[in-house]
Amino acid sequence: MSTIQDSGQDSPTVPPPAGPSGTESPATGERPPAAQPVADAPAGLTPDQRRRKALLRFAISITVLNVVGHLWLGFEQPPIVPILAVLVSYAAHLGLEAVDAWAHRRRPEYAGGAREVFYFLLPAHIAALACAMLLFTSTIWPYLFAVVVAAASKYVFRVRVRGRLRHFLNPSNLGISVVLLTMPLVGFTPPYMFLNNTDQTLDVLIPLTVLMAGTMLNGKLTRKMPLILGWVGGYVLQAVLRMVFFDDVLLATLGMMTGVPFVLYMNYMITDPGTSPMDPRRQVVFGVSVALVYGVLIVAQVSYAIFFALVLVCAVRGVLLFLGERGLSVPIGSRRPSGGPVPAPQGS
Predict the structure, then answer these.
(1) What does the alpha-carbon distance between residue 335 and residue 332 come to, in Å, rounded to a whole number?
(2) What is the pTM of this model?
(3) Residue 85 or residue 343, greater confidence
């Protein structure tokens, strides 16, 4: 899910070249030299190729889930919702990128032919289907508003890191959060929707299939397994703390982890490479932080806490990135190499 959308951040690998990307914030200067293959990348793949491969697989996965969901699983939204959401998301991303490129006197990220346009629009596709799938209401406008917010957030909430603007809020998560916060008649999609027309066997197989597919993508391409482990460990920790101090039922709290929405959030949203750290230790901190903030919001009886927790942690990380650029702190996920010039990161 978005929110799941690009993987070029500060990392120990050589930066990939600038270009269309899933969650990378728009470029603001000249394109850097092309990346060289790195030792730990899949055979023959540069970081940019790996990022594009991950984007394509994420887009295919969420598209298949939406098609199967509307045809067989019993998704509650009208079928026109994902279609219109995708079209509006495409238009918003292309329009905002054109304006931003003109304002900064740079080449648009989608310039260079049909292939570049295709990869540029993959994040728009992912974010649109995420918003269309995870929101539930009786009118079309909240869905469209969510995808426009998701697109605009990449150009509004940015911080300059090592000479390059990077957005720091998870786009699809922010779009969903803003709609849930501002529109009382909109809610989160009914969790039963993902298994609406299935029997007991498929009730187990579908979550396992989504889990395995997402885990393979994150393990091989985005390399976000430390973040996932941090999130899962932090979620169990906050569940235990709520049981001890607030008498919450532990099994009921942990039972949420077996649902399709939880698996989708874990593998396709919180792991968005463009708005989460690349360093393994900082990934763990990020995942645990989201889980603990979620627990605090639940104790405070805040609805839809799982989305708001990610917004808050991403916002704090954005502040740390801003301060780190000014030598005031070392931001999570933005480790500076010792000695030598600081390379410009090639993602968000």
Answers:
(1) 7
(2) 0.81
(3) 85
Whole-angstrom CA distances from 67 to 82, 83, 115, 275, 280 are: 10, 11, 24, 27, 34
What the block records as the tokens of 184 is 């009382």
pLDDT in tens, 21-62: 344 444 344 444 444 443 344 456 787 888 899 899 999 999
> In 3-state terms, what secondary structure has residue 130?
helix
Q: Which residue has the tokens 């104790």?
A: 299
Q: How far apart are CA 297 and CA 291, in angstroms?
A: 10
Omega before residue 83 within 30° of 0, cis: no
Statement: residue 117 has pLDDT above 50: yes
Token duo for residue 212: 């395995």
Q: Tokens 């169990």, residue?
A: 236
Mean pLDDT of 81-100: 97
The pair of structure tokens assigned to 227 is 């973040």
Give residues with Cβ within 8 angstroms of 45, minimum separation 6.
Answer: 37, 53
Q: How far apart are CA 147 and CA 150, in angstroms?
A: 5
